[in-house]
Amino acid sequence: MAVLPCFLCGKELDQRMAKSGKPYFVCDPCGTQFFVRRKQGIEKLAYLFRTIREHNLVLRHHGQRLFEISATLNELSEVGREFEKLDDSISIFSKSKREKQRALTILKKHMQKLLNDLEKLTR
After folding, report:
1. Same domain, 40 and 94
2. In terms of residue numbers, what domain contains 37?
3. In what order do the strands lie in the sheet with 23-27?
4. Whether the model pTM is above 0.70
5. Least confident of 12-16, 79-83, 104-108
6. How far apart are CA 6 and CA 77, in angstroms?
7. Residue 114 contacts residue 79 (beta carbons within 8 Å)
8. pLDDT-based confidence at residue 102 (cuts at 50, 70, 90)
9. Mean pLDDT to the nearest integer, 5-19
10. Do strands 23-27 and 32-35 pair parallel, antiparallel, or not at all (unpaired)?
């Protein structure tokens, strides 16, 4: 059965299914509820559980690290989208080449920091 740790207390939470067929989790001691309602989230959750099964990971022991890795991967994805937005906004607002280069340099440094963080987390 699919389980996730509670982000407040670490208790293993069993995945439940709503009448709509969408997954959710409940931590009775903390009173937290975690619902996954959109297609993208449901797909990411399924991918997470497939990956855990394939690599025989024990979430209880690696829960915190998993959250950190997931957050870092999401932030890397956001930085990638910022690169795309920067190219689009440059043409719209006619920013100078120098400003564009400065913004690209900042984004590249941030991406490198995230990659370094990810490398440390996966050791």
Report:
1. no
2. 1-57
3. 16-17, 23-27, 32-35
4. no
5. 79-83
6. 25
7. yes
8. confident
9. 85
10. antiparallel
- 99 with 120, same domain: the answer is yes
What secondary structure letter does DSSP report for 9?
T
* Chain mean pLDDT for the chain: 80
Whether 52 and 70 share a structural domain: no
88 and 53 assigned to the same domain? no
CA distance 78 to 61: 28
Q: What is the pLDDT of residue 58?
A: 58
* Residue 60 confidence (pLDDT): 52
The stretches of the chain forming alpha helices (DSSP H) are 39-54, 59-93, 97-121
> 48 with 65, same domain?
no
d(CA 51, CA 78): 22
The token pair at 58 is: 């024990």
- Pair 50, 81 in one domain: no
